[in-house]
Amino acid sequence: QVQLVVSGGGSVQAGGSLRLSCAASGLFFNTNSMAWFRQGAGKEREFVSAITYYGGNILYYADFVKGRFTMTRDDANKLSLQMNSLVPEDTTVYYCAAKDGTIATEVVDYNYWGQGTQVTVSS
To answer: Which of 11, 18, 29, 97 could form a disulfide with 110 if both were Cys (CB 3.0 to 4.6 A apart)?
Structure first.
């Protein structure tokens, strides 16, 4: 059974940094993808970043995080998101997601989800 456990999050002032981590179990080792999404109250869940564990470890970022966030994957089961230069607009709940197979950027394509973790950035 696939399980995702999320850690990290917290509160920082604008310009600060936070690091989120996600540990997965039960994924198909050679063909899977993991991603970060975020969702504020009353808003749709939106894509943040995604990474594969095959074919060169292809990595995608949403435009609003490029140059500020860095996603890394140590192996098939561990994922992290280093968030720098945080702004109040980054305040929301962040989710780790996973799927068996090719990389995707849509919520509907991911069938495994971890619990949300709150990120709060004060001005």
So the answer is: 97
